[in-house]
Design a protein that fits this description.
By secondary structure, this protein is mostly helical. It folds into 2 domains: 51 residues; 91 residues. The chain contains 7 helices and no strands. The relative contact order is 0.12.
Length: 165
């Protein structure tokens, strides 16, 4: 495998892995709501700044991630299990959420008058699909982490030695 095709494969895998986490169909309306009333130029600056911050954070952890993990004694299988639990939790929350929550002390009749028409909401369907994908990814991370621990030669040897002693 040539270095160029390996780099392309890693870049594609990274984009595919980040896509369900960033959830663009839900993030775009949130961004528009946060920048409501802002000029187009200000929105573009904010979007560019957010993208640059994200790239800086990802690059920092790309370069220093193994050092940090070694310092704290975190293994790759352990990281996979913890990350899988986190991603599965987020996915489960997206899958089971009822959408907008209201305080219990609001009069239901008064709230019904101000409710928006949500009869057709493709965003909720997309959020549920992304939640399902995140749940699947999280479970796969957990499985890979457990397999990484279970197939570790030194761990298997230690267990075998402990049983035979």
């Amino acid at each position: 495998m040539s270095p160029g095709s390996h780099f392309l494969e890693l870049t594609l895998a990274t984009v595919v892995a980040l896509l369900p986490v960033t959830n663009p169909p839900a993030s775009a309306p949130a961004f528009l709501a946060l920048t409501e009333g802002s000029s187009q130029r200000h929105r573009h600056r904010q979007l560019l700044a957010a993208c640059l911050y994200m790239v800086a954070i990802l690059m920092t952890f790309l370069v220093t991630g193994s050092l940090i993990m070694r310092f704290f004694g975190i293994s790759i299988p352990g990281l996979r299990i913890a990350g899988g639990l986190m991603v599965a939790g987020v996915g489960s929350g997206m899958l089971t959420s009822d959408g907008e929550r209201r305080p219990d002390d609001i009069d239901p009749e008064a709230a019904a008058v101000t409710d928006r028409d949500i009869a057709f909401s493709p965003l909720q369907a997309v959020t549920k699909i992304m939640g399902f994908l995140l749940l699947c990814i999280g479970i796969q991370f957990i499985v890979n982490g457990v397999l990484g621990i279970a197939t570790d030669a030194s761990l298997v040897r230690s267990i075998r030695d402990a049983i035979h002693d």
